[in-house]
Amino acid sequence: MLTTTLLLGVTLWSWLVQSVHGGAGNKWTYVDNTLGPENWYTVFPFCGGQQQSPIEVISELVVPGHDLVDFNLSELNNTKGVTMIIANVGGHTVQVALGGKPIYITGGGLGGRFRVEQFHFHWGNKNERGSEHAIDGLFYPMEMHIVLYNDMHPNFTSAVHETKGLAVLAFFFKVGQVNKGMFKILRHFSSIKFSGANKPIVAFPIAALLPKKINSWFRYDGSLTTPPCSESVRWTLFKDEISISHSQMKAFRKLLRNIQGQQNMILVDNYRPLQELNKRKVYTNLKFQSVGNKNSNQLE
Q1: Catalytic residue among 21, 92, 120, 246
Q2: Does the domain formed by 2-288 have CATH 3.10.200.10?
Q3: 122 noted as active-site residue
Q4: Confidence class of residue 18 from pLDDT cuts 50, 70 and 90?
């Protein structure tokens, strides 16, 4: 029963990122001139808003955030009662959807308790690009988003268009040492090579993918980076990078955008261009981080 429910969740998310508010048959892409990011707003009006994501963070313009207390990320170690399905969602991304026993994130100045809905990745065809956000002009080869919704709402769908209804924890990858935790995902790539493919997998701790300690991060209010681009997201961009090997990155670049039987099109460069910051501010936790606090932002 849990597997069936989670499969429905994957299908719902696929529908959401392809056709919410666009009507039946409307889709979007990263590569097509008429359906690409520069024209998303013609079908999805929120994509033309003033608080869109991603953005470039310019360090000298960042200000201290007085309410940015430590995160409690301990539940990212949980696997008991948790179910997972990995999917190639619409040829847009690799996503792992969660079901079963909820995993919650608290703290971090999010203003409530947030439940993990899914996590997914954005990556480039070359190591010089791939991340959606940039830090002082620097892009990373891959960015992971852990997508959360405020549990004051009954489910993700009802939270999508609510002010601060969603939160995303974003992590940047750098090419270097092998990431052993990443094999828990990569071992299933042969099953999700084509768009629309999905597979139930044994639940593993999300924390296995992340840095052991998290020291600093940026915060701003923005939007989903895919249609419908609703401006309901409180973003956290972690400065502590995650290592991944060149061969592991190559595995992502072998996935395909198309369904089986069609001409092969590799799934790469699945990131939205940078958006204007406009009147928003970007905050940091750095000057308000607890010193010597063993509970601060630790996963162990």
Answers
A1: 92
A2: yes
A3: no
A4: very low
